[in-house]
Structure formats: C-alpha cells, structure tokens
C-alpha cells in the first residue's frame, strides 16, 4: 500500500510540471510593511503605492515570481496574470494592548478590481489580558482556479468593540500549483 501512495502523485500528473522545490517559479510572498488599526469597516492591505504602513512589501527572500503577480487596476488589487490552480493564503496577526476583546477577520476577495466577493475567510478572537498585550492569528485560504488577469485583494477587520492592531507579521502567499489552458 505504501508504494502506491508514494508514487501516485509523481505518476498521475496532478501537480503538472511545476517544480515544487523551486520557489522562484509560480510562488510569491508578501509581508506587511507596518502596524495599523483595522476597524469594523475593514482595511484593505495595499499591494502598490506609497502607503507608509498599510501596504504589503514583496518578500523575495527565497526567490519569487515577479512577472505573474503585479499591481492591479488600483493599489489595493493584486493582478494574477497566469490562469491556473493556486493556493492563496492570507495570515493576519492582530493584537490589542488594552480595551475589550474583539473579533478579527481575514478575507481573500476577488476576481475583479475592488472585488468584495469572498474567496476565503478566517475568523479569530483577540482576548483582553490584564496589563498585557493579547495576540491572535487568523488565516484565510483559497485553493482553486484563478482565471488569467484576475485581480484579488486582502481585507482584514476587527469587531465593533474597537480596533485591533494588525502586526507586521501579517503576510500573503500565492503559489501556482498548475497552469491551466
């Protein structure tokens, strides 16, 4: 039985020809540039432009595909130029220093400029601690077909009790698993 499991993926072509060991092909990672507040109305993290804190920086630490992923129609949109099957993750790290507990959400939205269509969503809760900072991590994941030249955006929000602070460890990762004609 173990022989079947170990060879099925490599022989079936499910992954296609994408070399999973080479991060420079089909993958990109963005990290948040600075800490900012996310209120109940939500905050979209910019891909381009010159926002001082509420903006993703391209993280090329392990290589990365800078031709498939570009700024979209607005600074808040990321344009994905290659049609294919993707894994897209959005990981939000939020905290509160004082005040009431609050919910925190992370949303991957697309497939158009300024889209509000939710592709993946995660929800969490920051716990208020006495005289200490409380943290939470929230992940949104989308796995599926992304049409060519699609635009997506990343939104985070906190409950109406107050604003959670979005930490610089917030990140998004996009990986092209397989191109689709």
Question: What does this molecule look like?
Answer:
The chain is mainly beta. The chain has one domain (27-179): Jelly Rolls (Sandwich). It contains one helix and 13 strands. The chain has one helix at 2-12; strands at 27-32, 36-38, 43-44, 56-58, 69-71, 78-80, 84-96, 102-110, 118-126, 134-146, 150-158, 164-166, 171-179. Strands 1, 2, 4, 7, 10, 12 and 13 form a seven-stranded antiparallel beta sheet that branches. Strands 3, 5, 6, 8, 9 and 11 form a six-stranded antiparallel beta sheet that branches. The longest helix is centred in the N-terminal third of the chain and has 11 residues, at 2-12.
Question: Key terms for this structure?
Answer:
elongated; seven-stranded antiparallel sheet; 47% strand; disordered N terminus; Jelly Rolls; 181 residues; mainly beta
CATH level-3 fold name: Jelly Rolls
Topology as H/E string?
Answer: HEEEEEEEEEEEEE
The CATH architecture term is: Sandwich
**What is the count of DSSP helices, taking H or I runs of 4+ residues?**
1
The fraction of residues in strands falls at: over 45%
The assigned structural class equals mainly beta
Please report the distance between the alpha carbons of the first and last residues: 34 Å
Quaternary state reads: single chain
User: How many beta strands in the DSSP annotation?
Assistant: 13
Overall 3D form: elongated
Fraction of residues in H or I helices:
under 10%
Largest sheet: 7 strands, antiparallel
Overall average residue pLDDT: 74
- Poorly predicted tracts of residues: 1-25
Provide the domain count. Answer: 1
The CATH first-level class comes to Mainly Beta
Radius of gyration over alpha carbons?
Answer: 18 Å
């Amino acid at each position: 039985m173990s022989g079947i499991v170990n060879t099925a993926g490599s022989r079936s072509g499910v992954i296609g020809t994408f070399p999973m060991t080479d991060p420079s092909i089909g993958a990109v990672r963005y990290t948040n540039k600075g800490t900012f507040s996310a209120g109940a109305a939500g905050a979209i993290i910019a891909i381009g432009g010159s926002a001082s804190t509420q903006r993703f920086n391209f993280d090329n630490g392990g290589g990365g595909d800078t031709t498939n992923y570009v700024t979209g129609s607005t600074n808040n949109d990321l344009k994905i130029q290659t049609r294919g099957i993707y894994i897209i993750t959005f990981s939000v790290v939020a905290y509160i220093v004082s005040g009431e507990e609050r919910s925190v959400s992370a949303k991957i939205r697309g497939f158009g400029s300024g889209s509000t269509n939710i592709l993946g969503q995660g929800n969490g809760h920051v716990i208020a601690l006495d005289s200490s900072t409380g943290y939470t991590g929230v992940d949104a994941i989308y796995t599926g077909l992304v049409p060519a030249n699609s635009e997506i955006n990343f939104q985070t929000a906190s409950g109406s009790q107050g604003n959670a602070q979005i930490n610089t460890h917030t990140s998004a990762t996009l990986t092209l698993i397989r191109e689709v004609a």
